[in-house]
Amino acid sequence: MRVIGLIKRVLIACCLALVLLHPALFSDKSEETPEYQLKGTFIERIVRFIQWPEDSPVNNKSRPFIIGIIGENPFLVKQKGEDAPKDWLELIYIEQGIKIKSKPTEVRYISDIDGIRECNLLFVSKSEKKMLPEIVAAARENHVLTFSDVDGFAKKGIHINLILKSGNVKYEVNQTGIVEAGLTIKYQLLKYAAKIEDPQKKRR
How many CB atoms are located within 10 Å of the residue 16 CB? Predict the structure, then answer.
């Protein structure tokens, strides 16, 4: 009976994973959903399939999950007919109270390399292209999961690179970078990835 119960739980977990990450869930069918609202929501879905080291602050339920943004904030967008720009990350994770890893979320705006160590997840904007090697190194040393949406950034060390194609949010995975940062990626996340870098490949 215990074996049957375990099999059922595994099957349910696999089905849930496929549902959560299936590209169809992120299609912009209304043609009105802003790009960075879609990408902001996708972040929480991705993080469900990443595990941090046991001693990481992510596993401390008394501390918030911290999303950092370094560089120009692409989530700060002024919509047509609105007087002020809207920060989609703050709207999703603070105003709407969406939790990550069952924890309250805090959004921080990082101005220098030193601030990276305080983050659990870091979104790297296009403006930081010249500083990318330093950012990637600091994130790796501090077990910080990195996101971006800039073409080519995944090849340069960013862990998850979000792509919007035909109204669908897709993602590239730098598996090597994730492993080197001491993080664990669940296989379900790789199933729908647009590009996967094999951590076993030797660097040239």
Answer: 12
Determine contact, residues 43/147, Cβ cutoff 8 Å: yes
Residues listed for the chain: 204
**pLDDT tens track for 85-130:** 789 999 999 999 999 999 999 999 999 999 999 999 999 999 999 9
| 2-76+83-196 CATH choice from 3.40.50.150, 3.90.1150.10, 3.40.50.2300, 3.30.470.20 | 3.40.50.2300
pTM (2 d.p.): 0.82
* Residue ranges covered by each domain of the chain: 2-76+83-196
